[in-house]
C-alpha cells in the first residue's frame, strides 16, 4: 500500500506547524533557564 503523495503546499504547511511547535518549546525552555538564573542571582 502506498501513501497518497502530499502536495508541496501541504508539506510546507505541516513543516511550518512543526517549526512553530518547536519554537514554542524552545521559548518555554529559555524562560525556565532565565528563571533559574534569576534564582541563582538572588541567592
> Secondary-structure element order, as H and E?
H
Q: What general outline do the C-alpha atoms trace?
A: rod-shaped
**Largest sheet at a glance?**
none
Gap between N and C termini, in Å?
Answer: 61 Å
Beta fraction: under 5%
What does this structure look like?
The protein is an all-alpha fold and 43 residues long. The protein has one domain. Helices cover 81% and strands 0% of the residues. The chain has one helix at residues 8-42. The chain is rod-shaped, with a radius of gyration of 19 Å. The model has no long low-confidence stretch (mean pLDDT 90). This is FbpB family small basic protein.
Tags for this model:
mainly alpha, 43 residues
Short description:
By secondary structure, the chain is mostly helical. The chain is 81% helix and 0% strand.
Give the SSE layout:
Layout: H1 8-42
Protein name: FbpB family small basic protein
Organism: Priestia megaterium (Bacillus megaterium)
InterPro entries: SenN/SenS
Amino acid at each position: 500500500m502506498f501513501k497518497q503523495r502530499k502536495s508541496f503546499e501541504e508539506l510546507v504547511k505541516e513543516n511550518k506547524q512543526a517549526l512553530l511547535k518547536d519554537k514554542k518549546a524552545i521559548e518555554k525552555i529559555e524562560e525556565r533557564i532565565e528563571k533559574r538564573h534569576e534564582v541563582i542571582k538572588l541567592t
